[in-house]
Amino acid sequence: MRRITRITTVGIATAALALSATACGKSSNEGSSSSSTSGSKAVKVAIAYDIGGRGDQSFNDAAYAGLKKAEDELGVKGAEAEPSQGESDADKVARLTSLARAGNNPVIGVGFSYAPAIAKVAKSFPKTTFGLIDDTSVTAPNIANLVFNEEQGSYLAGVAAAKTSKTGTVGFIGGVEVPLIKKFEAGFTQGVKDTNPKAKVLTQYLTQPPNFDGFSKPDLGKAAAQGQLDKGADVIYAAAGLAGSGSIEAAATAGKWAIGVDSDQYNQAGLAKYKDHILTSVTKNVSGSVFNLIKSVKDGKPESGEVRYGLATDGVGLADSNPAYQKMTDVIAAVDAAKKNIVDGKITVKTAP
User: Fold this and answer.
1) Which of 214, 228, 238, 348 could form a disulfide with 247 if both were Cys (CB 3.0 to 4.6 A apart)?
2) How far apart are CA 221 and CA 178, in angstroms?
3) pLDDT tens-place string over residues 97-148
4) Residue 344's CB: how many other CB atoms inside 10 A?
């Protein structure tokens, strides 16, 4: 794969950021055109990461995998832009403006926090397609809202947790208490209770908006998981981005089960030390959504409006990479039955607790 240019933002001025992005675009793409009909000239595309950045072993890394696949299979040239700690919407506007001005198309914002910025920048670049992951609150002809039925995958995780737990107590950790993460909680709790009505679900959120540290600080996830372990939880599911790695560490250290999120965290190199205790992961096909959007623009038929990924199309699911999980035939049978009932419409999964 061709080396990807990374644009790290640290709160510098808009003009400087724009200059940096433009310069990086020329360097890595050798002056290529942003047109999808540029022949031998590579199409330029960009993603702007969410809190935690690339290397979170979860959400952002899944988006990067889609970009990498597009580079490998479509021959596009990619740029990446990292967030800065405690940044404002103005910082995101500057970042997206820089990427669009550099000729990238599409420009993809990873996470709902990009919604206000994309709403503004998309108006200034009507010929550029903007991808917005996990949000449908802003719409325009040149915005593709890439969204998922997180509650459905989380329901399956709840089934697996209830079937696996020996104490009858399981835990849910949410990074930040926002509507998106409440979907994870709702599905998980419903799956647990439908499987074992007597089971107890311990729920904790790491931070409240506008504090989004709950998506980026592993120590917060570790402390929360330890608290749930002390209360008898033996399976813990965290939807907390990079902070979730702390909860996985705590569960693994205690010899209990962790359930990953967004990516198949059993296969994440940064979590290899704890992989034997990652029972499964609720996966979102973020990588596929990124790749599909890039391909649609390159093909001259850019996606627009709501593009939803659900259980019926494997847009969300439950990973089975752990050999220990593969041996749990009763758990797998219960998960498969639940999946069929959701797809068939026999089970409607709640999107709020």
Assistant:
1) 238
2) 16
3) 999 999 999 999 999 999 999 999 999 999 999 999 999 999 999 999 999 9
4) 9
**What confidence score (pLDDT) does residue 17 get?**
34
Q: Which long-range contacts (CB under 8 A, 24 or more apart) does 285-288 make?
A: 285/148, 285/309, 285/314, 285/315, 285/316, 286/59, 286/62, 286/63, 286/65, 286/66, 286/110, 286/133, 286/146, 286/148, 286/262, 287/62, 287/63, 287/65, 287/66, 287/69, 288/66, 288/315
Tens of pLDDT, residues 292-347? 999 999 999 999 999 999 999 999 999 999 999 999 999 999 999 999 999 999 99
Give backbone dihedrals phi and psi of 331, rounded to 5 degrees, phi first: -70, -45
**Torsion angles phi and psi, residue 55, rounded to 5:** 105, 5
On whether the CB atoms of residues 262 and 64 are closer than 8 A, the answer is no
- AA letter at 123: K
Q: How far is CA 153 from the centre of its chain?
A: 13
